[in-house]
Write a structure and sequence with these properties.
- The protein has 128 residues and is α+β, with helices and mostly antiparallel strands.
- It has one domain.
- 35% of the residues lie in helices and 22% in strands.
- The chain contains four helices and four strands; from the N terminus they run ααββββαα.
- A four-stranded antiparallel beta sheet has the order 1-2-3-4.
Length: 128
């Protein structure tokens, strides 16, 4: 599932810049913020050894970094497989930066594992 993203303006993302220190995250921020402003994405959850599971994520768009985003993710178009999460905008936009990286590096739309851990309220084992 390809997605064509345009970069948000420097004025729009400047308020978010202090929250992302790494150069690669700062480079992806204008695209992630543009994605954030759309309020929804459709993608596929890739699970090792299994076929991808389609999802649609929708969220309420707010303007300030410390505003709260409510995001709902529905898998396979099934309302019974719908989950909600609330996050500070900076954290959610950070996950969208990871989505942009997935699009660039892997060619598909998917959130990172840490997003799903929070969404499903699963504790990840610490990496050694």
């Amino acid at each position: 599932m390809a997605i064509d993203l345009k970069a948000a303006s420097p004025q729009e993302v400047s308020i978010y810049m202090p929250y992302y220190r790494e150069p690669n995250r700062r480079q992806a921020l204008p695209y992630a913020f543009s994605l954030y402003k759309q309020g929804e994405i459709t993608g596929e959850r890739h699970i090792e050894g299994s076929t991808p599971v389609s999802f649609m994520a929708v969220w309420r768009v707010a303007n300030l970094p410390m505003d709260i985003s409510l995001c709902r993710v529905t898998f396979e178009g099934d309302a019974d497989m719908s989950y909600e999460i609330t996050l500070d905008n900076t954290e959610f936009v950070g996950y969208l930066i990871d989505v942009v990286s997935n699009i660039r590096d892997k060619g598909y739309v998917d959130f990172p594992q840490t997003f799903y851990s929070k969404l499903f309220r699963i504790k990840l084992a610490a990496s050694l």
